[in-house]
Every structure is written in C-alpha cells, then in structure tokens.
Write a structure and sequence with these properties.
alpha+beta; five-stranded mixed beta sheet; five-stranded antiparallel beta sheet; 13 helices; disordered N terminus
C-alpha cells in the first residue's frame, strides 16, 4: 500500500518553468560607460513582474540617492520595469538597486551600475537597501510550510473519513479541527506579511493600512482572501458532515467535499508557480490535481496512524485495503502531474548538480531513499492485517448447496438460521472444531503485533514525509533551473558581462588607522582576455589611505592555472592596471595582499566569476 508513496515525495512540489522572474537585460547595460546621460532605466525579465512603490533606488557618484519618477512598465509590457531619471546627471558611476515581484508572488531584487562620461575614480560602499528582512522572511516561510501541511491534513483526513469509512471516526475529529484552524491562522499571517515580504522590510510594517490595501488588490492577496472564503465554507461543510445520519448522504458529501478541496487547491495554483511560464491552463490543472492527491495521500497516512492507535480496530481489515486502493490512485495522479511539473522546472539533467534548484531536488531524493526502506515494512504488515478480511469473504461463498425444493428450517426473527439458536450453534461449532479455542488467542496476538508494527512504520513515514515537505517548500521558493537557463540564453546580443566589484576587508594587526580597513576592487569587464583592475584602499575610519603595496593574484584551481600576478602600480590615490590577461572562463580565486609597513601585511581571498 505505502510503497508507492516514494513517488509522491520524488515528484511533489516541483516548480514549473519560469517560477521566478529572472533578469534578462538592462538598459543601460551593466558596467557600461555612456557619453550622454540616459533618460530612463529599463529592466527586462523572463516573465511578468509586479512593481512596488520603491522598485528603483538610484545612487549617484556622491553616494546620495537620485530623485526618480514612479516606476512603470515600458511600452505596456508586463515583463519590463522602467523608471525616469532627472534631466541632468553628473559624470561618474551610478548604482541602480531594484526590486520587483514575479508573477508567482516571489520578490526578486538585484543591483547594477553604469557610468556617465567616465567611471568614478573612487566609490565607497553604497547601501542599496534591504534584500530581505530575515525575521520577515523566516516568518513568511514558516507560515507557507504550515499552510501546505495543514491543507494536506485537512483534505486527507476528510477524504479518509468519507472514502475509507472507519466505524469510529472520532479519532479524526480533533486533528481535522486543528488542521482547519492552522490553515486559517497561517493564511491570515501570510496576508499580513505580504507587504513587508515584498518590500523586504520588518514585520512591523504588516500593520501598515496603506500597504495592506495594496496587498488586497494584488493577485497574491486576492488568492489569500479567496482561501479564507473557501475555509469558511469548509467549516460549514464539516459541521454538516459530523451530523450525517445515513450512507445515502455520502454521494452528496463527496461531491461537495471534492468541490471545496479543488477550490482550496486553486488558491495556490492561481497565484504561484502554475500561473506563470508555459502551458498555463494545463499547468494549473496539473497543480490542482497534484495538491489534491498529495493531501489525500499525506493526510490519509496521518488518519491511518490515528485509526491504528485509537480505534478498537475491528474494521481495520476493511479500512486498510480501502485506503490502499485510494493511495494507489493518488500515486498515479502524483506520478503523472509530478513528472510534468519537474520537466517544466528542471529543464535538463545537468541542472541537477549545476543549480541550487537541482541540488535541492537531490536532497529530496535522499529523503525518498529513506522512505523506500520504511515502505517495504509497511506493506508487509498491511498484508497481514488485510488477510483476515480476505479469509472471511472467501468463507461466505463456501456454503453447502441445498437440494432443490428442500424446505427451509424454521427460524424466529433475529435468530440464527441453524437449529438450536445462536448459543447452541456456537457450542456445536466449538465441539466440532477441537483446538479452535486454543488457536484463537495466538491468531489475535499475531494480529496485534502486525498492527503495532504497522503503526511504527507509518509513524516513521509521516515524520520523514514532513521533513521532505519542508524541503519542497524551500524548493518552491528557489529559482528553477529552466528559468535560469532562459535568462542566460535570452540576454541581448552584444551585452558585456557585468563589472565585478568586491569589498575585501583586511586587518594586518598593526593597530593603526592603516592596519585595518577595506580594499574596493573593481575588475572590468570580468571576462576572458584583457581586464582592468582598480583597487582603492580605505582605512578603519573609511577614509582613503596610502599603503606601500597592494598585490593581487588570480588562480583557477579547477584548471590548475595561476597564480597570475596583476602587477598593480600606484596610480596616485589607487592601485591599478589595464593589462591583466585571464585566459579561461570560470570561478577564479582572487588573492589580495595589503602591506602597510615592512613587517605588517595580510592576504585575503575572494571568488570572482570570469565570463567567456
């Protein structure tokens, strides 16, 4: 029964293509030097993006923020972001920090620079604003995980009660109510945290009325409001379900419950991954089915565990096979939809090890490997529990045929059809089958052992499944490999690789203003061939300082190239050169050595990316 659950966690939660917007290009180009000041800054993304009140922050050569117009979409295209600049810009280097919200509701941010006339000779470190508030991000991720988990439990527990029909559903009632309240609370938290999560600010901004108003008019906010409405309708349904009197009401209850579960799953599909990228209608349908099947399986496991622990268990030989058939159908749905979603998100097998998305998928596979071992034991004990029901069904059909026309024995209403009544029949059966009474305790003990062992294995599966679901939550917040590849392939022709800027802190232990500080290193254009380097040394008081020597070397460990000495020279205020030849693309190690006296020096290493 449970062996097929490994397919669920292998394929569950894989995000489709372009699940996050990736920056395709900038105008002006990153690292470019312009003869005339631009009138606009325009960003182009791989998918539609939403704009914030503070989507652009532009800083001038003096490190002060430049006044800009309100951010808009360029030429009405939803995959662009544009901001107007003042009419006159001074010469020097400008830094542009940007932040938008991708169509799947995740914020995306970054920064780049361009220069007007010429590059600034010296630039201090610019605070471009928050990328993400750690507390807000942590609370938002926790609420997302609880929402996924609660939805799975809510759908699965209700489905187990309706489809598996345990004789005593009372063990499921409290967990069902707890799942409803947890989903309600996590949805409210997500709604309040939406504005600070998008802006990268602290949780206190969750109670900003203006920000909350903007949230309610956006697609993620509308989806969360719809989820609250569906939850209220679900509460009414669950109350009526608890008062159900007969099996004749079960078809209607199944229809209503299925519609509510599908509407609940649609609140995720309409605002997150499935709503963007290629084949959106098919992707949203696949996502809804995927979420429903996950809930039926994961919540059903929890329901089975509760039934095994708290129920008398007389109906288990019937309940367990029913859940086995339902779980098998869920696995088929999960396999088909999960493979499709994985194809949309991964793109290629090489992305498994070459991207963060692929490595997270491998981490999920490690959890699945553990489930393979546990599921084998679960299947063994499931068969033992289901065996008595199979024997009973077979015995019903093994009756001795009566001659045609033979008179039926007299029978009182409510009594056994065998002569002598129930008591006499039982006594006769015991006398006709000597040793049966002695064998019954042994069989009952074996059944109890099978149930106890099944409880343990299912408990382990539930725990491991919860861990893998957590990894899946992180996976859905990671840029898919296909989107990353699309952004790289669709970069405008002729765009130069970005200039690499690195801040290298140093401490020679000299105990003076020049003994501690930072080196601002600019590598231009950070690609194969000739490169220029400028290294500006700042002291502990953030002022420029003069040091006897700055030396920078480059090594490419993967190809055993280097060290290549940049041979910097004192350019009067900074150290630099325009003739560093880096022959290969890859992740180079840049070693910066700062000497402040004849005996005091220190070396610090940093990784830099050299593009082809």
């Amino acid at each position: 029964m449970l062996l097929g659950t490994v397919l669920v966690l292998l394929l569950a939660g894989a995000a489709p293509a372009s699940a996050h917007a990736a920056l395709r290009g900038t105008d002006p180009d990153d690292g470019s030097v312009l003869k005339q000041a631009p009138r606009h800054v325009t960003l182009t993304f791989t998918e539609s993006v939403g704009l914030l009140a503070d989507s652009f922050r532009v800083f001038g050569p003096d490190q002060r923020r430049v006044h800009t117009d309100e951010a808009t979409h360029a030429d009405g295209r939803s995959d662009t972001a544009r901001v107007g600049l003042p009419g006159k810009l001074a010469q020097g280097t400008y830094t542009v920090a940007w932040r938008v919200v991708s169509a799947d509701s995740h914020p995306v941010s970054g920064a780049f620079s361009f220069s007007v006339g010429k590059r600034s000779a010296t630039t201090g470190q610019i605070d471009t604003g928050p990328a993400e508030d750690p507390l807000t991000g942590g609370l938002h991720d926790a609420a997302r995980y609880l929402a996924y988990l609660a939805a799975a439990l809510l759908v699965g527990l209700a489905a187990f009660a309706l489809l598996c029909r345990p004789a005593d559903p009372s063990p499921l009632r409290r967990p069902l109510v707890a799942a409803w309240w947890t989903l309600l609370g996590s949805t409210v938290v997500l709604l309040l945290l939406r504005a600070p999560y998008e802006a990268g600010t602290g949780p206190a901004d969750a109670f900003d009325a203006a920000a909350l108003g903007r949230t309610l008019t956006g697609r993620p906010g509308e989806a969360l409001l719809a989820r609250l409405v569906v939850l209220l309708l679900t509460a009414v349904f669950l109350i009526r379900l608890s008062r159900r009197r007969g099996p004749e009401e079960r078809p209607a209850a199944l229809a209503i419950g299925t519609a509510l579960a599908a509407a609940l799953a649609l609140t995720w599909a309409a605002a997150e991954h499935a709503s963007t990228g290629i084949q959106v209608p098919l992707a949203m349908t696949s996502s809804v089915l995927h979420l429903l099947a996950t809930g039926v399986w994961l919540g059903g496991l929890v329901a089975l565990l509760l039934t095994l622990r708290r129920s008398a268990g007389d109906d288990l030989p019937e309940v367990v096979p029913r859940f086995s058939r339902i779980a098998f159908a869920s696995v088929i749905v999960l396999a088909v939809t999960g493979l499709y979603q994985s194809w949309r998100g991964l793109g290629s097998l090489s992305a498994l090890t070459g991207t963060s998305y692929g490595r997270l998928l491998l981490a999920k596979l490690a959890g699945v490997a553990v489930l393979l071992l546990v599921a084998g034991y679960s299947r063994r004990w499931t068969r033992r529990i289901a065996a008595p029901a199979a024997v009973t069904r077979a015995a019903v059909h093994e009756r001795v045929p009566q001659p045609v026309g033979a008179p039926a024995p007299p029978q009182e209403p409510g009594l056994s059809q065998e002569p002598g009544g129930p008591q006499e029949t039982e006594e006769r059966r015991e006398s006709e089958t000597p040793g049966a009474a002695a064998e019954e305790p042994s069989a009952s003990g074996a059944d109890r052992d099978a149930r106890r062992l099944l409880r343990r294995s299912v408990l382990v599966e539930v725990v491991v499944a919860a861990v893998v679901l957590m990894i899946t939550t992180v996976l859905t917040g990671t840029l898919p490999a296909r989107a990353q590849a699309e952004a790289a392939q669709q970069a405008p022709a002729g765009t130069l690789p970005p200039t690499t800027q690195a801040t290298v802190p140093y401490d020679t232990g000299g105990g003076t203003l020049t003994g501690r500080g930072t080196v601002q290193v600019t590598l231009d254009p950070a690609r194969v061939g000739e490169n220029g380097i400028q290294a500006v040394v700042y002291g502990s008081d953030t002022g420029l300082v003069v040091v006897p020597e700055v030396r920078i070397t480059f090594t490419l460990p993967s190809r055993k190239v280097g060290p290549i000495d940049a041979e910097l020279t004192d350019q009067g205020g900074y150290w630099g050169t325009n003739s560093v030849n880096l022959p290969l693309a890859g992740n180079w190690t840049m070693k910066t050595t700062v000497r402040v006296s004849d005996v005091d020096q220190v070396s610090v290493e940093r990784k830099v990316r050299i593009a082809p």
